[in-house]
């Protein structure tokens, strides 16, 4: 008669026949502890260096209440002028996004590993896109204000560069995800690289390009509203003096305009995506 033995996948038991539970806490590695200590030290140093006092924190609610009571009702006396500035902001966002998206397509083709003509060119283009994307659009606005002067041109250029860095990366990643089958089939017929990109890569990436372009338009509209704070045109040039002069009712009018335009842009983007992808594609899958 053979003795009964526990199966191999059963938990180990102790001397008293009780199952040993896995350890619920393990001491983290020294590198994780060092990183945690460094982050904590930086945070503590920041709180000390920034002179954050309880008195200033206590004044915050009273100041916010002063803004709320001073902002209602919104001041509509300058609504026509503010609407014109909002229209300029919207136009800046559309032009900057359009230029950025158009420039992103050749940049992405050069950056993608499966379409770049030479590997060093791909590496260089990806580095350029990273640099463009790493610098905030507000900093780009300051640079172009210095270069071309105050006004919406500086805002358009700042948005174009920002969109180029952002959309160029996503376009390149989408191109690298295109299935190899149609590309190899065309190459086997002797088609040139330009023909392969024009007839296989770009058609397969068009829907993704459009969705990314619409998202960058939403992003540009939100970004364009603050570029005016550094002199790059748009509604931001009205918002800064409204707060500086404590005209909170005018500031609230501008904020409401920004909210309406951003909301409408998001709805338009969702509508276009729904039309392109179809309702079935957007329905819950799980």
TrEMBL record:
The chain crosses the membrane at residues 30-48, 142-171, 191-217, 224-244, 250-268. This is Phosphonate transport system permease protein. It comes from Enteractinococcus fodinae. Keywords: Cell membrane, Membrane, Transmembrane, Transmembrane helix, Transport. InterPro entries: MetI-like (IPR000515), MetI-like_sf (IPR035906), PhnE/PtxC (IPR005769). Its main location: membrane. It is found in: Cell membrane. Residues 86-269 form the ABC transmembrane type-1 domain. It comes from the Bacteria. Belongs to the binding-protein-dependent transport system permease family. It is a multi-pass membrane protein.
